[in-house]
Each structure stands twice: as C-alpha cells, then as structure tokens.
Amino acid sequence: MESRRPPTQLRQPPYLPENVIMLILLWLPLKTLMQFKCVCRSWNSLISSPVFVKLKYLRSPKGANIMLTIEYLHDPQHHIIRAVPCSVPSLLNSRLSAASVYSSFPIMDDYWVVGTCHGLVCLAGPIWDSEDSTDEFWVKIWNPVTRIASGRSPILPCNSFVSLELGFGYDYKNEAYKVVALITSLEAEKDSEKCQVKVYTMGDSGWRDKGSFPALPIAGRIRNKNDGIYITGTLNWLALRNFEGDNAWEDVTALDQVEIVSLDLGEETYKHFALPDGLDERPILTPVLGVLNEYLYLCHDYDTTNFVLWQMKEFGNARSWTLLLNVTNEHLQLDSFFLVSEVFPLVPMCMSENGDVVLILSAEDIAVIQYDFKDDRVERHAIPRGEVWIQPKDYTESLVLPL
Predict the structure, then answer these.
(1) How many CB atoms lie within 10 A of CB 324?
(2) Are 225 and 112 in contact (CB under 8 A)?
(3) pLDDT at 112
(4) Number of helices and strands (H, E) in the chain?
C-alpha cells in the first residue's frame, strides 16, 4: 500500500527588511529610482520619503553635473533657449545626451537660471505689459530629475528699479528654501541704503520686506547676472560700499570699494568679506563669483592678458583666499578677437574631485577649455556650431520635491 506524501508546502517569498531594501536602493542611479517608484506602493513611499531623499543626495557625487543655459541658433526662425542639466563627460565630448535635453526646461522670453540648491533649480522671469516693459517678476522651482516644477511665486514688484539681483538657497535653521531679491532703485544711485531686500520662503503667500541691503550690489552683465551665490546656508554677492553713483563695474575707481556681502539665510544677518589681498589692480571686466568643489571662487581678467582664479579655502575667512590659477589667454589658446567680453566672460565650469583639472567656459570663443594643473596642459573642446552655452551653475542631482 502506497504511503501518502504530505502535501507540498508553498514556499514564502524571501523577506527583506525595509532598511535593507533602502540600503540597496541607495546604490541605484536616480533615473532608475524614478522607474522603481512604479514597482509598488511601498517602494514609491520609501523612495519618496524625506529620509531616503536626504540620504541619496548626501551620497550623490558632487561636481559631476553642471546646469547650463543653452541657446540653440540652428534655425533663425525658431530661436530656442533651454536650461539643460549635463554631465561633465558630455561636456568634454561636446555632445549632450538625449536624456539631458529631455530633462531640460524651455526658457521663454527672458527667464533665467538664478541658482541651484540640493538638486533644485530656481528660475526667474518677468511679467510683460502691453508696452514691453515690466516692473514685476516671479520665480519658480524645478527639479530636472523628477521633471516636476512648482507654480509661479507671488509677484515681486520692482517699481522704478535699476537692477534686480536674486539668490536661491536653503535655510538650515528653519528647514526652508528661500529666494532673496535685491532691488536697486533709481534713488540708490545717490544712496546705497536704498537697495531694498525682499525674501520669499517657498510656500508663503508673498514676499517679505527685509529692509535695506548694507551695500550696493554690482549690476550683473547682460548674459551673466550678479545673482547670489549659495554656499553653506548663505547667499553671497559682489557689492560696493561707501559708493555714490551708478552700480556698474565701469564706475568703480578703487578696489577698496568692492567687497563680498554674505547673507545668512537662517539668521538673516550680513557679513562682509574682503577680496583677495593679491588682487591689487582693478580688472577691466567685472569679476565673477561662484562655487567649485564646494569652495567659493573669484575669477577675473588681468590687463586682458591673463585669466586669474582664486579659491577661498575656509569660507568666511578672507585670509584663506588662495591663488589657484593665473594663466595667459595665449596659453589658453584664445582667439585674440575675443579677449575682452562683458557679454561672454571666461568662467570656470567645474573642477575634478582632486583639483587637478578645471574646465573653463569660453562662450565667445565657442569652446570648453580643459586645463591640467600637473603638466600645465591645455586641451580645447569645441562647442557645437549654432549653440551658445552660458551661465554655468554648480548642480547635484536629487529627488527633492520643488513644493
């Protein structure tokens, strides 16, 4: 008589604790994570959680991506401008991937990229009236990875303004993203205290008055505005102190009039930093302030013959300014016709993690210049014809929601 076999037991699928799943998912690229959000509700909830978003951002490689504004001039009848996130390898190959362009944002009218923070990009634009003039502006926040953009902010009124400089960053004290506007009025040409400060905290119903700016912000260029540079919870502007007259660089007569004004976004208080001691002659072109490898930098021309780059090794300490690069335009293989340009100045785009190589954008000369510190070697990478690359911004991908 046959013995009966016990019924086959159904095997349970292997179980992984949520913290183990999180550790595995943290290794995946952001674009893959966006796809994995569709696997199930629990994964969607996990990947969207603030804890996961923060951990993933902290693990993201810094300096691996750049946010560019690109003007496409291939078809004169369809002039297209887009804010495009791109990787450093794509810059060196002079070819942006289809994914980058797909993740880009169309820039209509006079929108511009104010800045980036935690993977979010702040865009600003005007509201035109029937006479093609405006005294009103707005901002909105966009995440290129999630392709989600916030709605427009409340209107920022700028009555009778001479210049508008903005800044975008994160307030660690109150855990909020803020946009700061410096509105220089007509009266500010006679009284530097007439530069008004307004603050918009994401989610608020309006802009908040913050009194007067303690200096006169230098008016930005046509293509490269003097918008605030975000670093370690602060926004930083090039500005003029004890200055009467226009806030254009051409009117500066002495370098002791120029300083960096830093606004702490948490305390909403100001500090003042001096320019590098070695900068003893007024550059012909307006210096450029920015961030490379999480360090503040200042770059400028020297007598239209050299490109000079300084780095602040300890943020807030003016004595820590270090001369990083002083190289002739001839060595950078620049066309002599393009040596002086307020419209398209030379600006650093990014630096290798070990600091051995820096990429310099020469939009006027239509090239990305790769400079190797070790052997003083220069390599040029042509920008495709019919394209103009401007306003490079330090950018790190993230899953942070712009809400």
Answers:
(1) 20
(2) yes
(3) 87
(4) 6, 26
CA dist 349 and 66 (Å) reads: 7
Q: What angle do CA 397, 399, 403 make, to 5 degrees?
A: 115
Mean pLDDT throughout 361-368?
A: 80
Distance CA 218, CA 162 (A): 11
Query: Would you state the pLDDT for residue 356?
Result: 84
- Say which residue, 63 or 243, is predicted with more confidence: 63
Nearest by Cα to 228 from 285, 270, 193, 280: 270
178 C-beta neighbours (distance < 10 Å), count? 24
The gap from C-alpha 15 to its chain's centroid, in whole angstroms, comes to 43
DSSP reduced 3-state for 43:
helix
Least confident of 40-44, 296-300, 385-389: 385-389
In this structure, what token pair is assigned to residue 266?
């948490």
What is the reported pLDDT for 98? 47
Tokens of 101: 């362009």
| Residue 100, pLDDT score | 58
Whether the pTM exceeds 0.85: the reply is yes
Which domains are assigned to the chain? Answer: 17-59 (no CATH), 60-395 (2.120.10.30)
What is the spatial distance between Cα 241 and Cα 270, in angstroms, rounded to a whole number?
Answer: 13
Q: Please, what is the end-to-end C-alpha distance for the chain in angstroms?
A: 73
